[in-house]
Amino acid sequence: MTAAAAPALKMQRRSLYPGWFYLPAAVVYSVLFLAPTFASLYFSLTRWTLFDATFIGFDNFAQFFREPFLIQGLVNTVIYAVVTSGLKVVIGMALAVMLTSQIMARGYLRSVIFFPVLVSTIGVGMTFTVLMHPTQGMINQALALFGIAGPGWLVDPKLALFSVALVDVWKGVGLATVIYIAGLVAIPKDYYEAARIDGATRLQNFIYVTLPLSRPATATVITLSFIGGLRTFDLIWAMTKGGPGFASDTVASVIYKQYQAGFYGLSTAGNVVLFILIAVLVVPLTMFLNRKQGHE
Amino acid sequence: MAGLELKNIQKTYGKVEVIKGVDLDIEDGEFVVFVGPSGCGKSTLLRMIAGLEDITGGELYIGDKLCNDVEPRDRSIAMVFQSYALYPHMTVYDNVGFGLKLAKTPKDVRDQKIREAARILKMEHLLDRKPGQLSGGQRQRVAIGRAIVRQPEVFLFDEPLSNLDAALRVDTRMEIAKLHADLGATMIYVTHDQVEAMTLADKIVVLDAGVVQQVGSPIELYQRPQNRFVAGFIGSPKMNFVEVAVEAIGPDAITVGSKDVASLRVPAATAGISVGDTLTLGIRPHDLSPANTGAIVGRVAIVERLGNETIVNIELASGTAWLAVLDGDQALRIGESLALAAEPAKAILFDAAGKALLPTPA
Amino acid sequence: MRSRGSIIGGVAAIAATFVVFVIPFLFIILMAFKDKQQSALRDFSWPNGFHLWDNLYEVVKTRNWMMITAFINSSLITVVSVTLLIVLAAMVGFVLARRKTRWNGLIEFLILAGLMIPPAVVPTIWLLQGLKLFGTLHGMILIQVAYNLPFSIILYRAFIATIPRELDEAAVIDGARPLDVFFRIILPLLWPVTVTNIVVQSVGIFNDFTNPLYYLPGNQNATVQLTLYNFQSQFSTAYNLLFTNIMLITIPPLIVFMFFNRQIVAGMTAGAVKG
């Protein structure tokens, strides 16, 4: 009769949405993702052989910021992420505008641009390594037909990182394009019609309607490709292995190299550095992008 | 078959009290309608009976069984939802048979029951379709079919007609009434529409703010509402109210008046009332009729001529707006003065707390 | 009303995308048809003679038919981890979308973290060794599940939020237990997202190189991506074989693309936009 008796009884009835549904996923995720992530915070402070770890404080991190080739990896990572995400935004947007217009062969264009997204990164990397060969590669052979002496795409230390970034854009711009297409299609036609009645030109249409209203898509493309760029490993590994020298090393390739060399503590410190780098760059970035979004 | 008994049923979400102690007896085979404005707690009460909401306090008996902590499937209830909630990926046949399948009813028995339900609801031709291919009315039938196939002792309806258009609503209402007559099961029906409540119910439960305002038969609620809320909620168009002063207290009647109403002697309970008190007078629009010597005089503001009756919006001297439904076609001009007579026996007085001063029945 | 300008624009677009996006694939195919001498030139020329079958045979039988093992391994990893992903992610998405508790904020944070944070590889290896899962297919499968859960959960949660709760309640009244509600009502209704999930995650896991590189050392459990990587040095002078291999591993995504183009695009954009 009294309310006090009810809670005890209520325990017997099961929820329709049982909490244990979280359990299998939580176990797998915690053991294989969260636990190593937390463990990395400790092991990054050690000299580590997998069998025993000696605590050495911040030595690994100090080394990271002392060795020129490690610093270069850090700088390269940021350059790579900025270049790839910037190009994906610009090219993806342009392609999406083109593909949402009354252009012919839209289906063909869309498929052709998107397909590389699904192809093995390693395969793409190896193919372009061959295509980008300074003398035997098809790209420079084709340029030679026009009398242009093509650069040493992957062998020139100043160029290698950007060459890999270009291939990354080639492979990933299709995803940026479809995200933009989804964003552009969602813009109500009324805005364009209103702008047309106001006498807007096509360029003004793009600047005052398309650009601001596709900002959510831009935010998505930037966030996705920026995180992807910071974490990139496979394409770089397939094409240059960080070379020539350390010219195209990124934090992710450094992590792998240190791991191969048996410097497990240093490798793990690299992981923590990458983690912090992503947190420091991506969190403010997404906050910035989303705040802008909120204004609309 | 089973009746229900609710003893001091309460529901709170955190600190918010939604149901504040409901006591209710529902007889076996009765058709009970919970009615009230939105947010009054009627759906919550129904969902507590169904077992979809936990009961915070009090006791719920279905039949003789205490059901507070019984799973919905063991309460021998079935429910028809507002949105019908048909399973989109199953055919009508499987929708109706899902409960039986879960109860591991043998296939031949199941088939027979599904077809029987389909026959009762005249939807045999729909059995192979998916809900997406049905009209609103057909979905409604399937939802009811899903309920009757389980042969529950209590049917629960949660605003089942609110998604249908007006014409279909009247038809379906009649079918539900017929279903009740045929099956003889206990039915509890939630609606915010007092017309549905009046036409379907054996017993209406009027709820407001989580409290039962009155329980009774439709006519009882219409003729003898216990408070101003029930008087205003039941009946369409709504009852007119105006403040009046007590002029005289006679045996079993009170004479009231104001600048809107010339002295009117209304049969009422007189206990605790003294001359000079302010009361509220309630008169239903249908109980007003034009009369040159009428007690109520106002200015015609809006006239709606429907042919068989005329709905007049009048403004009383105090500025209060009243509605009168007059028989036949009345050619009235806007702005003209209109005198109306009221039958005193049908007028009701309410005290300052809103409680009706009903006369003791003869 | 198609103007001359837009026709020229269209033709130019087709030509440009052909050069940029199609020619590299044609190059792969042409190389796969060539013999060793001609492929060494690495130019865009018509094959002298038909050598595809020889090349295929050569690639497949290299290192004791390793390609076959690799395809089996990759398929196993993909099929099992995608199956697990679907069930686990749908369960989480279901409860997460339906039940509001004070834990929801933390869970959503962990999901976002999983999308952003790079896995800590060496500690993971150390842990897998401790669990005796390092270098095994089981370990690889669990890793793929753990790493890809957040994306699948996001896809599912967004979709489940669109399924009316009254369906769950109707099922409960019909006598369904929580598992019945999930497996008989919710999961079947999730089919469109499930297809998206299957397609997107299969492609991702099949193409994954980094994780097998770390967690599946040795030839015995190699995946197709690892095999290609390992063959690179072996085929360094035999470009015909290298490109035959590349073509071979491009075929599965091509098939998926041809059949599920729409779902892939829908899934990738939906997941991206909501994430």
From TrEMBL, chain A:
Keywords: Cell membrane, Membrane, Transmembrane, Transmembrane helix, Transport
GO biological process assignments: transmembrane transport
Membrane topology: Multi-pass membrane protein
Chain segments annotated as transmembrane: 20-43, 78-100, 112-132, 162-187, 272-290
Domain ABC transmembrane type-1, chain residue ranges per copy: 74-285
Family classification: Belongs to the binding-protein-dependent transport system permease family.
Protein name according to UniProt: ABC transporter
Organism field: Devosia soli
Automatic annotation (TrEMBL), chain B:
Gene3D superfamilies reported in the protein's UniProt record: 2.40.50.100, Nucleic acid-binding proteins, P-loop containing nucleotide triphosphate hydrolases
Pfam families referenced in this protein's UniProt entry, alphabetically: ABC_tran (PF00005), TOBE_2 (PF08402)
GO molecular function, one term: ATP hydrolysis activity
This protein's GO CC annotations: ATP-binding cassette (ABC) transporter complex, substrate-binding subunit-containing; maltose transport complex
Record has Nucleotide-binding as a keyword: yes
Principal location listed in the UniProt entry: membrane
Ranges of residues in domain ABC transporter: 4-234
Name this polypeptide is given: ABC transporter ATP-binding protein
Membrane topology designation: Peripheral membrane protein
Record localization: Cell inner membrane
Record lineage: Bacteria, Pseudomonadati, Pseudomonadota, Alphaproteobacteria, Hyphomicrobiales
PROSITE patterns reported for this sequence: ABC_TRANSPORTER_1, ABC_TRANSPORTER_2
Family: Belongs to the ABC transporter superfamily.
Annotated organism of origin: Devosia soli
Entry keywords, A to Z: ATP-binding, Nucleotide-binding, Transport
UniProtKB/TrEMBL annotation, chain C:
Superkingdom to which the source organism belongs: Bacteria
Keywords: Cell membrane, Membrane, Transmembrane, Transmembrane helix, Transport
Domain ABC transmembrane type-1: 71-260
Keyword Transmembrane helix: yes
Keyword Transport tagged: yes
Entries under CDD domains matching the protein: TM_PBP2
InterPro entries given in the database record: MetI-like (IPR000515), MetI-like_sf (IPR035906)
Transmembrane segments: 7-33, 65-97, 109-128, 140-160, 181-206, 238-260
Cell compartments where the protein resides: Cell membrane
Family annotation (Pfam families): BPD_transp_1
Alphabetical GO biological process terms: transmembrane transport
Membrane topology: Multi-pass membrane protein
Major subcellular site: membrane
Any one annotated GO CC term: plasma membrane
PANTHER family (alphabetical): ABC TRANSPORTER PERMEASE PROTEIN MG189-RELATED, ABC TRANSPORTER PERMEASE PROTEIN MG189-RELATED-RELATED
Family, per entry: Belongs to the binding-protein-dependent transport system permease family.
Name of the protein in question: ABC transporter
The organism's taxonomic lineage, starting at the top: Bacteria, Pseudomonadati, Pseudomonadota, Alphaproteobacteria, Hyphomicrobiales
